[in-house]
């Protein structure tokens, strides 16, 4: 959201029931006039600091003037407001909107948890199935040399896989070698 839109959204809040007092508004105007980059010229600053006009009118005119000037000017106003009235700056409606999470936005922490909620046992089970299928496919090759190599590998398998699984694989290999 651009700073001009945010300022338009916050205008009623800022001008309503003297949330900003005369001294704070003067400090903001002076900062916009004196600090680089100069946002307000000397004539504009004098116009907005005119004590004859009401504070509400001067502040409304200042905010409208900044909106006409562009996004950079509105951004500098927010910076001056943060420096001179930090509590008010934190209470702005546009700040509250920025702080609340978007309901359509994906929460990456929650998404990460949702993808990994099965745990390490599920991973090991999937890996074991994949390794078993790869081993069976490797052993089903018609080449007899492969069966001999697989038999050597399965000879050491009690360390890697369970005894029952090893016996099933050995029986399967013997059946293949007979054919």
UniProtKB/TrEMBL annotation:
<dbReference type="GO" id="GO:0005789">
    <property type="term" value="C:endoplasmic reticulum membrane"/>
</dbReference>
<dbReference type="InterPro" id="IPR001315">
    <property type="entry name" value="CARD"/>
</dbReference>
<keyword id="KW-0472">Membrane</keyword>
<keyword id="KW-1015">Disulfide bond</keyword>
<keyword id="KW-0256">Endoplasmic reticulum</keyword>
<keyword id="KW-0812">Transmembrane</keyword>
<protein>
    <recommendedName>
        <fullName>Caspase recruitment domain-containing protein 19</fullName>
    </recommendedName>
</protein>
<dbReference type="Pfam" id="PF00619">
    <property type="entry name" value="CARD"/>
</dbReference>
<comment type="subunit">
    <text>Associates with BCL10 by CARD-CARD interaction.</text>
</comment>
<dbReference type="GO" id="GO:0042981">
    <property type="term" value="P:regulation of apoptotic process"/>
</dbReference>
<keyword id="KW-0496">Mitochondrion</keyword>
<keyword id="KW-1133">Transmembrane helix</keyword>
<dbReference type="InterPro" id="IPR042146">
    <property type="entry name" value="CARD_BinCARD"/>
</dbReference>
<feature type="transmembrane region" description="Helical">
    <location>
        <begin position="120"/>
        <end position="138"/>
    </location>
</feature>
<dbReference type="InterPro" id="IPR043574">
    <property type="entry name" value="CARD19"/>
</dbReference>
<dbReference type="GO" id="GO:0031966">
    <property type="term" value="C:mitochondrial membrane"/>
</dbReference>
<dbReference type="InterPro" id="IPR011029">
    <property type="entry name" value="DEATH-like_dom_sf"/>
</dbReference>
<feature type="domain" description="CARD">
    <location>
        <begin position="38"/>
        <end position="96"/>
    </location>
</feature>
């Amino acid at each position: 959201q651009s700073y001009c839109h945010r300022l338009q959204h916050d205008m009623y809040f800022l001008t309503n029931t003297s949330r900003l007092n005369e001294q704070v508004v003067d400090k903001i105007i002076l900062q916009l006039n004196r600090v680089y980059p100069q946002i307000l010229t000397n004539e504009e600053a004098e116009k907005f600091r005119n004590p004859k006009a009401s504070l509400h009118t001067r502040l409304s005119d200042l905010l409208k003037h900044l909106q006409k000037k562009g996004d950079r000017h509105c951004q500098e106003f927010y910076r001056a407001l943060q420096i001179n009235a930090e509590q008010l700056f934190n209470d702005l409606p546009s700040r509250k909107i920025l702080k609340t999470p978007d309901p359509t936005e994906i929460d990456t922490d929650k998404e990460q948890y949702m993808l990994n909620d099965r745990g390490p046992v599920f991973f090991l089970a999937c890996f074991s199935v994949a390794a078993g299928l790869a081993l069976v496919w490797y052993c089903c090759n018609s080449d007899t040399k492969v069966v001999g190599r697989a038999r050597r590998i399965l000879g050491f398998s009690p360390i890697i896989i369970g005894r029952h699984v090893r016996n099933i694989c050995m029986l399967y290999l013997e059946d293949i070698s007979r054919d």
